[in-house]
């Protein structure tokens, strides 16, 4: 199964249709946009936490996640940062394990287009969500509960330093449907001309 | 906050009461016993998948997970195998991130007590669950769908080679309640006499 060339791959990735169907079919559940993000943390040990799906980047299949730059979610080895999402849809019993290279976009990015994506993601978040980036650093001991509540934000102000956009470019999607016990593995194949195709293989669950 | 000494720690771990309350409060949801298991896979990259909570080991706080020995879920570095669970309760909006050292128990274990635990876990599983360990190796290409269905099992037969019991001994539990925005981190402290205590700290979410 091929997903088209460079221009075509963005909208025709074969796994994207399955994921969109799962999103639509589970849309009545608030948690259907939550998934678990695994990274390799300090000392080479695995780390895992629930994050919110912030949509695909326009005109492509890249997955967006907002994160607090201070919470150290991303793992890198030799300047390549890789993670794996595990996204389980509780109503349709479907699981998507999506892995790929991540682009970490904070305010120091030199790319104007990336900074624009980050700003867009900031304003797309609710004011309540944005407030968390103004609070104390995640994970530090709480000495005064009141301190957390004493944060105010101008709704028209742009992203603060702690706000970080993660953009995952999927390279492999492992799809499992527990209702019919079917499993499909989609792998992106990079071609010599720089374009890419998706290969799909049915494997045992 | 201390959780008692060696004898007492098993039943008085302070996070265990929170987890039991979440399990009870979300028991009406089939998926409340599912969590995501992060490991470090080949090449040092993170891997993540949904697994089923198979209960605590008797008289202690160790968490049991059944797995297929052929699917290579466990990461080890210098003979120490560590993983992190991310367990999100969709109704109560509570997250438990539990990390610790894992004991991988397959049929080759030399410890009779461990083999007994494994056998117990096998018979506690439904016959349908057990059947998956007799099927083709997970992840290998499917050439003949019929092959998967042509598997039979004697319900009184003991665990097959592929059946593996993972036992996680928690060392750190990071609890987050999204309804009241409270976060508590529980850390196990090993004492000089071999016993252990739990330390709890309130941290910013």
UniProtKB/TrEMBL annotation, chains A, B:
Report keywords, A-Z. Answer: Flavoprotein, FMN, Oxidoreductase
Gene3D superfamilies, alphabetized? Electron Transport, Fmn-binding Protein, Chain A
Q: Where is the Pyridoxamine 5'-phosphate oxidase Alr4036 family FMN-binding domain?
A: 13-105
Query: One short Pfam family name for this protein?
Result: Pyridox_oxase_2
Could you provide one GO biological process annotation from this protein's UniProt record?
pyridoxine biosynthetic process
Q: Which cofactor does it need?
A: FMN
What enzyme category does the UniProt record give? Answer: oxidoreductase
GO molecular-function term, one example from the UniProt record: pyridoxamine phosphate oxidase activity
Domain of life, per UniProt, equals: Eukaryota
Biological pathway: Cofactor metabolism; pyridoxal 5'-phosphate salvage; pyridoxal 5'-phosphate from pyridoxine 5'-phosphate: step 1/1; Cofactor metabolism; pyridoxal 5'-phosphate salvage; pyridoxal 5'-phosphate from pyridoxamine 5'-phosphate: step 1/1
Its EC number is 1.4.3.5
Name recorded for this polypeptide: pyridoxal 5'-phosphate synthase
**InterPro entries per the UniProt record, alphabetical:** Pyridox_Oxase, Pyridox_Oxase_Alr4036_FMN-bd, Split_barrel_FMN-bd
